[in-house]
Write a structure and sequence with these properties.
By secondary structure, the chain is an all-alpha fold. The chain is built from two helices and no strands. 0% of the residues are buried.
């Protein structure tokens, strides 16, 4: 039982290392952040447009 436990923890550590390597490989997390921000702002814009249409009716 103990052996399987250490295996799973090793796998988790490998996932963390892989994630760190990915971040280093793509040194532009800001780009991803800006894409997310623009997506949310456009969604807010769409909802405000819909509200305007509803109020006009």
């Amino acid at each position: 039982m103990g052996g399987s436990r250490s295996k799973s923890s090793k796998k988790q550590n490998w996932n963390v290392t892989a994630a760190k390597n990915e971040v280093e490989h793509f040194p532009r997390p800001v780009q991803l952040l800006s894409i997310t921000l623009s997506a949310t702002s456009s969604a807010d814009y769409d909802s405000s447009q819909q509200q305007e249409v509803c109020s006009k009716e």
